[in-house]
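All the exercises in this workshop are built on plain-text protein records. Instead of coordinates, the fold is spelled out as a row of discrete tokens. Once this layout is familiar, the rest of the handout is easier to follow. The record below serves as our worked example for the rest of this section.
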Amino acid sequence: MYLTLSWRNLWRNGKRTLITVSAIVFAVVVAVFMQSVNRGSHEQMIDNMVRFHTGYVQLQDFRFEDEPSLDNSFPFTEEHISRAFEADDRITQVIPRIETFMLAGNDFSTRGAFVLGIDPNKEHAFNQIKDQISEGRFFERGEQGAVVSAGLARRLQLSVGDDIVLLGQGRFGMSASGLYEIKGIMKHPLPDLNNQLVYLPLEEAQYMLSADEHATAVLIGLGNERHSKPVAASLKAVFSDDELITKTWPELMPQLLQLLEFDLIGAYFMSGVLYIVIGFGFFSTILTMTLERVREFGVLLSVGMKRSRLAAVLFIETLMISLLGVLVGMGLAWLLLFYFHLNPIELTGDLAATVIEMGWEPIIPMSFAADQFYQQGIIVFLIAMVVYLFPLIKVMRLNILEASRS
């Protein structure tokens, strides 16, 4: 009976109900959209760092974290790759790398460079690195050549076909040097690396650095980043006798995560302001609705309806309106984000140039994470339920005679 009465009350004044539902729908859509934009930029930063720098899980020598040098590289052969795949069936890729800092130069000047030896085919399968080439092409496995980041090439005034000289120190203090033809120039997604990175074929870098069949890090590719911790535990058990440790991506980039957490403070503040505006908007709507129904409440109470039952009917009305608004809002928010997921908002002008200079695509990235829909929906629903306490209190304190004459 209560449900029937509440439903009829809602549509007895359809315009009023639609206005209230529309306010809730608008609140949910705006809250989800703001959350999506904020999380989208964070997800893009983390995704670039994971794909191009740390991987989801990384194998290292246990001494490498305290002293990241070639002396703390470790043997890693095809046998080790097989053992890694056997450690956990959630592992999709095993990507050995060797890295060091060297001097890179031409006939006139030198610059500090981060030299990274990679298997181009495995890297491309993990992060589509070959798609970042802006000039020339990427070297093939076993080929003697280099790919230079655009920022470093600009500083050294190098182009495709020129030679780049690398000077540095290999394992255990041995001298390391090499002369390589530049096969391609790439725009690296990470701004810091874009100014200093040189890619070499893995075998060539190992030979130059006197580190044959050694790696400084092994990146582990996964089908889902949520598997990082259990996969890291599986690898740790398999490679514990090799003096290797595992690091998950949050452990490998604590500074970035701290920066994002600090950025979230501003986002939470803006969300709080939005929720306050939403709450006052609801309250003004409900205040008007309640004052319009005071005479109705008075008549119902005067003919014998108990206050508790009238309060129960109002609560059910509140519940119906809130649920309807939240569900419709979540559906519209999903459609809106899906549209922008397929058709990202493109930046233009000086803003686009600034974003490109930072190494990002000139678009506003949107997060499509499922939890943001129900989280924002629940928050707006709770706000609506709190605001709807007003008509309940009004009913419990209502003067029947004054209400009936209003």
Summary: Residues 63-242 form one domain. Residues 160 and 321 are 64 Å apart (CA to CA). The first helix runs from residue 2 to 12. The chain has a mean pLDDT of 82.
